[in-house]
Specification:
The complex is a heterodimer of chains A (about 375) and B (about 375). Chain A has about 375 residues and is an all-alpha fold. Chain A is built from 17 helices and three strands. Chain A folds into two domains: about 270 residues, ABC transporter involved in vitamin B12 uptake, BtuC, CATH 1.10.3470; about 100 residues, Winged helix-like DNA-binding domain superfamily/Winged helix DNA-binding domain (Arc Repressor Mutant, subunit A, Orthogonal Bundle), CATH 1.10.10. Classes of the chains: A mainly alpha (about 375), B mainly alpha (about 375).
Chain lengths: ~375, ~375
């Protein structure tokens, strides 16, 4: 226990925890919009495009000064988004090519600048490598103040434009008919993704930031049907994966923070896709099985009723083998289930013949109800 | 002679770059046309995972085992992405963005753990070391040939052969996958073949340009070519030419500035793209606005001709056919009206007597073409 307290009292650990929390909140909230608008890979492009900005900020400030580095990252990330838009709007290139071009060319420029800085032999350039894959332990208390400011700003933007963002995300055409400046709002949503990227630079680095925008949002989507819930959950998932990854990384062994954070988020996604109620794959499988059984039961029930009607005998005993042939599959289990519900009961018709079944009065009522329901559904 | 060529380090570096670019843009053309460019992003990231795994298993740093083995992770990425999309829980863009970071993360962590023994570090992953390709040589026929050059040549030849042999099939599958399926070709198989080659190219190019710069070689030269031509065969050739030119220019620029050679080559492909985007003869921004301007001029002159024709020999013709009337009736300000009149005079559509404008026979024909097209047709 005292070990845990000492661990949490550690200055570096505190920084890491705060940083991971900020990153998780922002990337979860902003990522939700990006994923819902099917712009997931925009985060990837913006993150890679932050590299030249980091280097430019470093060159201009002459040292690892967080303000200029983050400002530079923000500027080139937004610039890349604009290049992407310019390419796709004014030429025959499609979005995928526009994203790929902006990503790879900006990153290449970043690498050129990075090697240029290394060539100048600036002693403090070592700090720049941390931005590639993230090094949570390298975060300073002063960095956190800036990150906190950006977090507040982006949350304030989302809160202030909540209704507008929501409408533009789900129905941009309707938003336009309501007189909302859709293009402006969409640009704003793009720009705030750059905020998330900027905050994530030190934690997960430029290369993996894409997943940090996408994963918490995708996981949250599995558990919620409302944007409000999704955004909050995504923030929670973001914080959890940020904390898990950052703490493992900070405890040593020289593991990069970024990959650990991303893997934690990936585990959350896998669990959510498999196990989430309603939308989870396993849940859906169970439901599909239940539906299939119910449909089969109803088919057998109505067949029995039809035969009874044709023979003018409400207690007409039907041979199980005949039902099997009629439905082209084994009906024993369906009949057993129906018997358990008291809708049919087995009868012995002839001693040397197979099992026979007849409808109970409750079975007749249920079969009628099924037909009425089908009729109502078909109308 | 051969010896001299092989010991020419700049030439070796440029040749490697040119081969990386050529091999990449041969497959890239189809990825760009199929709107699948970002798969190259996914593939090139996740092969890092494959390279580390194959190295841990076989201790082979490069060569055919690596190229084939690590390329499987590229296909794994595509497979997992499609699996996610099929579950209908995730849209395809998000699926791509979930799978490759996960694989890439595992790759980087393994690198962190085995950093002391693996030949690659996280830096190489991003930047490649094209400047040092000549250090790793193998002996072929008594000559020491850079390994990267050998394997890139093989991969380039394989890609070129694939594209040549399956040219028609690829063309059909790219532009009309439904017809391709209906005619009994196997577009899915072909598409997996293409992605397998993309993965192999990424692995072979990994030592030279790393995982991320590779994306530039796959997407950018074909995109630039796409802005320059409408023919698939031309697009392939132009893509390769741009890749080769970028390698040569990039090398000299990088040496002059003392920066990463691979990155500079990638930046050069961006230069070609920007040039194609701005100055392309047909789809370039300048050509487009030039065409739009010409179209606008033609329309304005036609408007003038129709206006004059409508008022020819009518009681109002004295007020309507003067230059000043264009301002009030067509909403043109003076300068614009003047320019339109000047251009129409030059085209011989109108003649001018003082302030009066009269249609020429040609001008009347232009107006009639618009007003009564059935007569002139």
């Amino acid at each position: 226990m005292s070990g845990l307290l000492a661990f949490l009292g550690d200055h570096t650990i505190q920084n890491v925890v705060i940083g991971a929390t900020l990153l998780g909140i922002v990337s979860g909230v902003l990522g939700s919009f990006a994923v819902l608008r099917q712009q997931s890979l925009l985060g990837d492009t913006l993150a890679h495009a932050a590299l030249p900005g980091i280097c430019l900020g470093f060159i201009i400030a002459g040292a690892r000064q967080i303000e200029s580095i983050l400002a530079g990252a923000f500027v080139t990330a937004v610039l890349a988004a604009l290049v992407m838009l310019a390419l796709t709007r004014n030429s025959r290139l499609k979005t995928d090519a526009g994203l790929g071009i902006a990503l790879s060319i900006f990153f290449a420029i970043g690498v050129v600048l990075l090697t240029y800085i290394q060539g100048t032999g600036n002693a403090s350039q070592g700090g720049l490598d941390a931005f590639l894959f993230g090094q949570a332990a390298a975060i300073l208390r002063s960095d956190l103040v800036i990150m906190g400011g950006i977090t507040l700003l982006s949350l304030a933007l989302v809160a202030g434009f909540w209704k507008e963002f929501k409408l533009v995300t789900f129905d941009p055409v309707f938003a336009a008919t309501q007189g909302l400046p859709v293009a402006l709002l969409e640009t704003l949503l793009t720009v705030i993704v750059a905020f998330a990227v900027v905050i994530g630079l030190q934690m997960v680095g430029v290369v993996l930031m894409a997943a940090m925008v996408i994963a918490p949002a995708v996981a949250a989507r599995q558990w919620s049907r409302r944007l409000e819930q999704m955004v909050v959950l995504a923030a929670v998932f973001g914080v959890v994966s940020g904390l898990v990854g950052a703490l493992i990384s900070a405890t040593g062994r020289g593991l990069s923070t970024g990959p650990l954070v991303i893997l934690a988020a990936t585990v959350l996604v896998i669990v959510s896709i498999l196990f989430a109620p309603q939308r989870g794959v396993i849940w859906e499988e169970i439901k599909r099985g239940r539906d299939r059984r119910e449909l089969g039961d109803n088919q057998v029930l109505t067949t029995l009723q039809g035969l009874a009607r044709h023979h003018d005998d409400p207690a007409y005993p039907v041979e199980q083998g005949m039902l099997d042939t009629y439905h082209g599959l084994a009906t024993r289990r369906a009949l057993t289930r129906l018997a358990r519900r008291g809708l049919v009961h087995p009868v012995r018709h002839m001693p040397d013949e197979g099992p026979h079944w007849e409808l109970t009065p409750a079975g007749h009522a249920a079969a009628r109800q099924v037909l009425v329901d089908i009729d109502a559904g078909g109308r | 002679m051969v010896e001299a060529l092989l010991s020419n380090i700049p030439l070796m570096i440029m040749a490697t770059g040119a081969l990386v670019g050529s091999a990449a843009s041969l497959v890239g053309v189809f990825l760009v046309l199929r709107k699948n460019s970002m798969l190259s992003d996914a593939i090139s990231h996740s092969i890092v995972f494959g390279i580390v795994i194959v190295w841990l298993l076989t201790r082979q740093q490069s060569g055919p085992v690596q190229i084939v083995g690590a390329a499987l992770t590229g296909l794994l990425t595509v497979f997992l992405t499609e699996l996610l999309v099929k579950s209908r829980k995730v849209k395809d863009d998000a699926a791509i963005g979930l799978v490759f970071p996960a694989l890439f993360s595992i790759g980087v962590l393994l690198l962190n753990l085995y950093a002391r023994s693996v030949h690659i570090d996280t830096h190489t992953v991003l930047l490649g070391e094209i400047g040092f390709v000549w250090l790793n040589t193998i002996s072929i026929g008594g000559y020491d040939v850079p390994q990267a050059l050998v394997w890139m040549s093989v991969v380039t030849l394989v890609n070129a052969a694939f594209v040549t042999v399956f040219f028609k099939d690829l063309k059909l599958a790219t532009f009309d996958p439904a017809l391709s399926t209906a005619l009994g070709f196997a577009p899915t198989l072909l598409s997996y073949g293409l992605l397998a080659l993309t993965s192999m190219t990424a692995v072979a190019a990994f030592d030279a340009v790393g995982a991320i710069l590779f994306i530039a070689f796959v997407i950018v030269p074909p995109s630039a070519a796409y802005l320059l031509t409408d023919r698939l065969a031309h697009m392939l050739v132009i893509g390769v030419l741009i890749a080769v030119a970028s390698s040569v220019l990039g090398y000299y620029a990088a040496v002059a500035l003392d920066v990463s050679i691979g990155a500079m080559m990638a930046v050069m492909t961006g230069g070609f793209l920007a040039a194609a985007f701005l100055f392309g003869p047909r789809y370039g921004i300048l050509a487009q606005s030039w065409r739009r301007m010409g179209q606008r001029y033609v329309n304005e002159s036609r408007t003038l001709a129709v206006h004059l024709y409508n008022h020819e020999d009518t009681p109002q013709s004295r007020e309507e056919t003067v230059v000043g009337a264009l301002r009030d009736h067509l909403g043109w300000h003076d300068r614009k009206a003047d320019q339109v009149v000047q251009r129409s005079l030059r085209l011989g559509l109108v003649v001018r007597h003082g302030v009066d404008l009269h249609l020429t026979a040609k001008g009347r024909r232009v107006a009639l073409e618009l007003l009564e097209p059935w007569r002139t047709a």
